[in-house]
Design a protein that fits this description.
The chain is mainly α. The chain has eleven helices and no strands. It has helices at 3-10, 15-34, 39-56, 63-98, 105-118, 123-134, 138-162, 166-174, 179-215, 222-230, 234-262.
């Protein structure tokens, strides 16, 4: 076989991928053309954004405003902590049931169907439903974030369990251990570090989402933020945003330390 023939075999074109990329490019161009996006709108948007930022500075640090923000942030932290604790606690058995290397097929597929339903809706949509069911306040936000936590953590935890080494599990089973003993000595030691990482990440996510669910009546800092925006108190909006950013950065630092401990 000649060198040119070897080159053609080694670098043969993949026309399937090429057609996919060509089709994606054509559709992207078509989608942009139907969205009424032009330079004039972008220019107007930049002007409006500059005017908005001018009204946001400097941030409002009046004591009465800070007290209202403090109460909202404390409630958001409480919502995130409770939703993460309860959601992760319920995600543990759900994730184990969804793992196909531990559960029978009918159990795993049923669990995965439930997880898919829980993951189908944005936390804001779920919060609106719970606000309608239980009324305004932190309870609606907590329940909405619990649903979001179960849907996210259960899916990833099931995938983590499916990636464990089967040798350690089989070694524990060979001793005649029960199913729960297999979990404790064969499964959990392999997945605990990643499970802690998922938990910490979900807490960060719930802390951010607690702001959004508050906008629709789920308690937390979202309600003062939305109220300030409606009143055109953009300096108060900036103050709340800066506090949220600071809180998220602190939570990221703490979560990194926690993950390092369990690694």
């Amino acid at each position: 076989m000649s060198a040119s023939t070897l080159a053609r075999v080694a670098f043969s074109p993949d026309w399937t991928k090429r057609f996919i990329w060509i089709g994606l490019t054509i559709y992207t161009i078509y989608a942009i053309s139907t969205l009424d996006i032009d330079g004039a709108r972008i220019a107007r948007g930049m002007t409006n954004a500059a005017r908005l930022f001018d009204r946001m500075f400097p941030p409002n640090l009046q004591p009465d405003k800070l007290e209202l923000i403090r109460e909202g942030m404390i409630e958001s932290i409480q919502i995130a902590v409770l939703a993460t604790f309860v959601g992760v606690f319920l995600s543990l058995p759900m994730g184990l049931a969804a793992a196909r290397n531990l559960s029978p097929a009918w159990v795993s597929w049923t669990a995965r169907a439930v997880i898919a339903v829980l993951r189908s809706f944005h936390p804001v949509i779920v919060a609106i439903l719970f606000v309608k069911a239980v009324g305004f306040g932190a309870l609606a936000g907590i329940l909405a974030l619990i649903v979001s936590t179960i849907g996210f953590v259960s899916k990833l935890f099931a995938e983590v369990v499916e990636e464990i080494s089967a040798k350690q599990v089989e070694a524990v089973r060979a001793t005649g251990a029960s199913f729960f003993a297999v979990l404790i000595f064969g499964v959990f030691p392999q997945v605990m570090a990643r499970f802690v990482g998922l938990t910490v990440y979900q807490f960060d996510s719930n802390l951010r989402n607690s702001t959004m669910v508050g906008i629709v009546g789920g308690g937390g800092i979202g309600a003062p933020l939305f109220t300030a925006y409606q009143r055109f108190d953009y300096d108060v909006v900036l103050t709340i945003l800066l506090i949220i950013i600071t809180l998220i950065m602190i939570a990221e630092f703490v979560s990194a330390r926690i993950r390092r401990i369990f690694q």
